[in-house]
Structure formats: structure tokens, C-alpha cells
Automatic annotation (TrEMBL):
The keyword Membrane does not apply. This is Peptidase S15. Keywords: Hydrolase. Residues 323-577 form the Xaa-Pro dipeptidyl-peptidase C-terminal domain. GO terms for molecular function: dipeptidyl-peptidase activity. PANTHER family: COCE_NOND FAMILY, PUTATIVE (AFU_ORTHOLOGUE AFUA_7G00600)-RELATED, PEPTIDASE S9 PROLYL OLIGOPEPTIDASE. Gene3D superfamilies: alpha/beta hydrolase, Galactose-binding domain-like. The keyword Hydrolase applies.
Length: 702
């Protein structure tokens, strides 16, 4: 058996005194790494406030009010998400929203209907009810005696999505938003599908919400009705993975709440933020191009995180930047934010794929698209990217990749952990067609979305193609810079796919994700093409071979270096507010392991993603989350691909102890997807709820 462990261990189990020493050292290390905002400004923290909707449903809010808000009104900032303000996000929330309160803003964190301590049942993402509730929440905030009537929204991922979506509604008191790691197109650029290919993060994310939705509210907040509310959620939330797999093309289900359908509906200023290691960077550029309101963009070297949690050498003082945005649009202070360059982007330097750092420098563009960027075309021939005009021989190149291409791809929306970033791409290129430039004689810097134009044939009616653009150093390691996927039945769009006619030649164009990257002199630029990318994306129904013609094109958005970039102001180091009190009982554990059993020819990718086991001291609550994901196949057989996610969550206070176990398995045949799932809930040692699912869903050219 061959085992590759792609991680730096963050959780080590040791007995007795050694264990306590490790815990203490981890706590001290974390404390020293985080710079805490030092302010003498006080604030008042309201642990729970009920906001009653027009239909009588009560939503739970936590509020931080700045000093003096009872005498002099202040603007407000809302974050509106399903991730449980009282427990699992309590520490993170305190580091952010206390800061805003110290800067003179009322900060409000609201649990969505059916999540956390709020009433109701959460049945899916971004439903009309959620958006209507959001509008009512903003109107409630604006009417409070401590509020000026000016409200902003901030959020990452889900909260970034609904901030954009609510900004596209008629919400007069919403004066500005900050949307982090979100999408304007719920089908084309979210965790579910990419280029018409099914992402396995669709399974991972569905399982995350399956687990979250299984938890009860806190009896200390809702009282004796907590168990009735819990049972309603367990029975009513449903299996979201099934819903998402029932919509395999861009139909009305995905168009709903996709602001790309009408950018003009957004009438308030927008600050859009993402990171190059995240899956959501593309949206930032489309928003800058299509919005007609004051707007600003920031894309850095971090992953799926607020930039102030980006880590040493990667993060910035994002809360300061956020406050400057609020000052301009909520306090009407003319601080020049709206006169700064539209985009601040982290130009990434060449770096080994074996480390998780992201060296580089900041650049800026005043507008997008930028006149500073020129698309340069490079022809492709067998094994080569031609930097200059050459005589190219016409040759057909055939590729049918093994399922192993993709095992080292990392996560679609990486958190920039050492475990979830793409590994050395040399591991992937043995199963791909590879095209290299000669060693570069001078640096080439790109900013934008690289494209590839190809003429190809397929021996199957349904096939996919995966492209990777890599930076190859002289030592031979290969770092993935950006990538693109396309289900070839979606070659003319995501709404009306059409099968391929075997033997026909098709000319296709594939856009890769936006990126800012420096390829230094002496390195090579590599384009890799494969017909599978498992387990990053679900494979085609049958193995397909593609025949690719010579004289394809690689189109790079080349940007010359600018001395103006050297004059940009420093964005600072991450600073957070003092968090609520907690005790670390067991550190987080992250592992990412690839196993190839040479005896059985079974290949597995196993991901362990356990959060820190904590006690929240102010409410005497212990919280725990453990998740394992396994993706596998046998003998390179497409019928054997399998994804499985198992999560356990628990809450405990004194004699009150609850635990939920969720498990989801996704497999497929050439014609169907099959979902098997279970949900078990325990009060103490007694199982009080159990439900299982076994569903077949027809594959729709995917």
C-alpha cells in the first residue's frame, strides 16, 4: 500500500500532563499570533434580542451597542447567516463585531429562520422567505432608538450571498454592503457546479448544512420548547443534496437570487472581497465590470476566510478597511475611499506547492476591464506552448486520463490550510496532455482570466475536460496557478446542454479562474489537459477519450509592471477585537491522506476536518464538531466512484447533552446518481430521532 499524507498535523493526542502541556502551548501560540485591538471604548453586549417577523416568527439576534448609543444614534452593521451565533461562531463573531462597536457602529448578528436560536425550519439556501426576512430585519434595525437609520450588511460566503441578494431588493435603509467570498451566479460560480461539471464540494457542503441543521436551539435562550423546535428541524429540514442534484443545469432554481440576472437592481455601494485560494474570486471581477454603483474590490493571498483571519504573512487589517467603507457610506465621512483604485489585487510570486505561504506584492487597477492588460495568444503543438511564431506540424493528440488525475487538486474553496491547497502538480501530469513553454527569458505577469481555444473530438457523447495552468520551477516542482473545467455538453451554455456527436470536430473556448500571477524568468508555464479531475469533480458517465488538434491557443492576460504599484498604502497586519472567554479542551485536527492499495487497486482520499473542542466559559457550553470525508474508486472503474461524508456535532452543559450524527454517501451509474443518508439525534445516551434516505436521481448529461 502506498500512503501519501498531505498535511501538517495540528492535533496530537497525548496522555496526562503532556496533553495539558500541548493544550497550553497551542493556546499561547494562538494568542500571540492574533493582534488584539486595544481600545478604551466600551460597548454593551445584548446576548439575545428577539426580532419578530410579520408572520409572527421570532428571529434571534445578538447585538453589540457602542458606548453612548442610548444618547446619540449610530449606524448599524448586520451579519445574517445560519451558523449559530450562540456557539459555533460565537468566538469569531466577538472578534469582528466587538471591533465595529468599538468604532461607533451597532453590530447585529442574526440567525436565519430555522437556525441557531431562531424559530422555524431552514429548508434550503436563499429562499424568498430568507430574503424577505432580511429586509424586515433591516427595517427593524433602522427603527431602533439607537440607530440613525443607516444600515450596512457584511458577510462571508452565505452572508456575502444574501448581502448581494438583499441589496438587489427594494431596501431603502440598506446604504452599503461588504460581500466576501460570494457569487453573483449560483449555478456557474458556486460550490455546486463548475462549467457544467458536478463538484464534489456539492456533497461536502450539503453534508455540512445537513449537520448544522440537525442541531437544536439553546434551552437557555428558548426555554422548554427547545426539544419541540429540535424535532421540527430534524424532520423538516430535508436532504439538500437531493434538491441540488435535481437541478443539473442552469434553470430557474439557480437563477433565483443570482444577481447576475440583473446587476442594475443593486443600488447601494458594494465592496467585494475574495482570495486567490478561494472558489469565489471570479465574482469580484464581474461585479466590478457590471455594477453601476460606487464599488471597490480586494483579492488577496488568502482562502475562504475574512482577510483578518488570513494568517501570518497573508492576512491584512481588514476590519480597518471595512470600517473605512462604513465611515464613507454609513457616516457620510468624505475619507476618499470612493476615490481610490477600484481593485487592489495580490500579485502572487512563484512559490513551491509544498508550502502554504503566498508571497507577492499588491497591485492596483483603477477600472475593470483594465486598459493596462493585453490578451496575448500563444499557439499549442505537441508538448509545447510557442512563445514566438513557429512552423507548427499538424498532429492529433489523444488523451484519456485515469481517475487519479485530481487527487492532489485540493479543495474548491480552500481555507488556505496546509491540508487543502493543491499539492505538487507533477503528481497529476502523468495522466494529462502537457504543454510547456521554453524557460522564460523574462518575467511574465498576468491579471485576469486565461483562456484556451481548442479543436477536439470525443469518442463519447458526454465528456469533460479539465485545464490547469502551472508554474514549473527549475527544480521540477509544479504549482497550480489557475484552472478551468468544462462539461463538453455545456459548450454552448449551461441552460440547454447538448450531447456530442462522436467523430464531429468542435471548437471550444474554456475560461479559467481569474488570477494575478508572476511567472519568473527561468521557470516554465505549463498547460495540462485531462479528461477527469476526480475527486474535485464528479467524472463523466463513461470514460471518454478526446482527440485534440494542433494549433490550439493559450490566451494570457498580460500586465506590464507598474511603478505606481510601489506607492500603494500599506494594508496593515490583521487586528481583531478581544474574543469571548473559552477553554481549549482538544486542538483541531486536519489531515488529508491519499492511499493506493496496490493489492486491491483501491484508491482513497481521506479528509479529517475536526474543529477545536471548546468550552465557552460565559455560557458554560462545550461544543464539538468532527468530520471525515472519503472519496474512492476501484480499478479505475467509473461505476465505483464514491463520496462519503460523516459528521458528529455535540453540545453539552451540565446534565444537558445532545449529539447528532449525519452520514451521506453519493455513488453513480452511467444513468443515475444514488444518495444514501442517515440522521441520528441523541439526548444524553438516548436516540430520540432517526431517519434515512435512499434516492435515485437521473443524470442530466453530467
Amino acid at each position: 500500500m502506498v500512503v501519501l499524507n498531505l498535511f501538517r498535523l495540528e492535533g496530537i493526542i497525548l496522555p496526562g500532563i503532556f496533553y495539558r502541556v500541548i493544550i497550553g502551548a497551542v493556546q499561547l501560540y494562538i494568542k500571540r499570533r492574533e493582534r488584539v485591538y486595544d481600545s478604551n471604548t466600551t460597548f454593551r453586549e445584548i446576548e439575545n434580542e428577539w426580532i419578530t417577523m410579520s408572520d409572527g416568527c421570532k428571529l434571534a439576534a445578538k447585538i453589540w451597542l457602542p458606548e453612548g448609543a442610548d444618547e446619540k444614534t449610530v449606524p448599524a452593521v448586520l451579519e445574517y447567516i445560519p451558523y449559530r451565533k450562540r456557539d459555533f461562531k460565537a468566538i469569531r463573531d466577538s472578534k469582528i463585531h466587538r471591533y465595529f462597536a468599538q468604532k461607533g457602529y451597532a453590530a447585529i448578528r442574526v440567525d436565519l429562520r430555522g437556525s441557531g436560536d431562531s424559530n422555524g425550519v431552514l429548508e434550503d439556501e436563499y429562499l424568498p422567505q430568507e430574503l424577505n426576512d432580511g429586509i424586515e430585519i433591516i427595517e427593524w434595525i433602522a427603527s431602533q432608538p439607537w440607530c440613525t437609520g443607516n444600515v450596512g450588511m457584511i458577510g462571508i460566503s452565505w452572508g456575502g450571498f444574501n448581502a448581494l441578494q438583499i441589496a438587489a431588493k427594494d431596501t431603502p435603509h440598506l446604504k452599503a454592503i461588504i460581500t466576501v467570498s460570494s457569487s453573483d451566479d449560483r449555478y456557474a460560480d458556486d460550490v455546486h457546479y463548475m462549467g457544467g461539471c458536478l463538484l464534489t464540494d456539492n456533497l461536502s457542503w450539503a453534508s455540512t448544512m445537513f449537520s448544522y441543521n440537525s442541531l437544536p436551539p439553546d434551552p437557555a435562550i428558548v426555554g422548554d420548547k427547545w426539544k419541540e423546535m429540535w424535532l421540527d428541524r430534524l424532520e423538516g429540514s430535508g436532504l439538500w443534496l437531493k434538491k441540488w442534484l435535481q437541478h443539473q443545469r442552469r434553470d430557474e432554481y439557480w437563477k433565483h437570487a443570482s444577481v447576475a440576472e440583473n446587476y442594475e437592481a443593486i443600488s447601494c455601494p458594494v465592496f467585494a472581497v475574495s482570495g486567490w485560494a478561494d472558489g469565489y474570486s471570479n465574482t469580484v471581477f464581474r461585479l466590478m465590470e457590471n455594477l453601476q454603483v460606487p464599488r471597490k474590490a480586494l483579492v488577496g493571498g488568502w482562502g475562504h476566510k475574512y482577510p483578518n483571519f488570513g494568517g501570518e504573512g497573508i492576512g491584512i487589517d481588514f476590519l480597518r478597511e471595512a470600517t473605512r467603507w462604513w465611515d464613507r457610506w454609513l457616516k457620510k465621512i468624505d475619507n476618499g475611499v470612493d476615490k481610490e483604485p477600484m481593485l487592489r489585487l495580490w500579485m502572487q510570486d512563484s512559490v513551491s506547492p509544498l508550502i502554504s505561504s503566498c508571497p507577492g506584492r499588491w497591485i492596483a487597477e483603477n477600472n475593470w476591464p483594465s486598459a493596462n492588460i493585453e490578451n496575448q495568444e500563444f499557439l499549442l503543438s505537441k508538448g509545447r506552448i510557442h512563445l514566438e511564431e513557429d512552423e507548427i506540424k499538424n498532429e492529433d493528440m489523444r488523451i484519456r486520463s485515469p481517475l487519479s488525475v485530481g487527487l492532489f487538486a485540493g479543495k474548491w474553496y480552500s481555507y488556505s490550510e496546509s491540508t487543502d491547497l493543491p499539492h505538487d502538480q507533477s503528481e497529476e501530469d502523468g495522466g494529462a496532455l502537457v504543454f510547456d513553454t521554453p524557460e522564460l527569458e523574462e518575467d511574465i505577469e498576468i491579471v485576469g482570466s486565461p483562456e484556451v481555444e481548442l479543436e477536439l473530438e470525443s469518442d463519447q457523447p458526454i465528456a469533460m475536460i479539465a485545464l490547469r495552468l502551472n508554474d514549473v520551477c527549475r527544480e521540477g516542482t509544479s504549482t497550480r496557478v489557475t484552472y478551468g473545467l468544462l462539461n463538453l455538453t455545456h459548450r454552448d451554455g449551461n441552460e440547454n446542454p447538448a450531447v456530442l456527436e462522436v467523430g464531429n470536430t468542435y471548437r471550444i473556448c474554456i475560461k479559467m479562474n481569474y488570477v494575478a500571477q508572476n511567472f519568473p524568468a527561468g521557470n516554465k508555464i505549463r498547460l495540462s489537459i485531462s479528461t477527469s479531475y476526480w475527486p474535485f469533480a464528479w467524472p463523466s458517465p463513461e470514460p471518454a477519450a478526446l482527440t485534440i488538434k494542433s494549433k490550439g491557443k493559450l490566451i494570457l492576460p498580460v500586465r506590464p509592471k507598474s511603478k505606481e504599484d510601489d506607492k500603494l498604502p500599506d494594508l496593515g497586519e490583521p487586528i481583531l477585537s478581544e474574543p469571548i472567554r473559552s477553554t481549549l479542551l482538544e486542538p483541531a485536527k486536519r489531515e488529508w491522506t491519499v492511499q493506493h492499495n496496490l493489492a486491491t487497486n483501491e484508491v482513497k482520499q481521506q479528509i479529517i476536518n475536526n474543529d477545536a473542542f471548546l468550552r465557552l466559559e460565559d455560557i458554560n457550553l462545550e461544543i464539538r464538531k468532527e468530520t471525515t470525508e472519503v472519496y474512492s474508486y476501484l480499478n479505475n472503474n467509473y461505476d465505483t466512484v464514491r463520496g462519503e461524508v460523516e459528521s458528529t456535532r455535540s453540545l453539552a452543559r451540565g446534565n444537558w447533552k445532545i449529539k447528532t450524527l449525519t452520514r451521506t454517501v453519493l455513488t453513480s451509474t452511467p444513468t443515475h446518481f444514488q444518495i444514501r443518508a442517515i440522521l441520528d439525534a441523541y439526548e444524553g445516551d438516548t436516540r430520540i430521532f432517526s431517519k434515512s434516505w435512499d434516492d435515485l436521481i437521473l443524470r442530466d448529461m453530467i
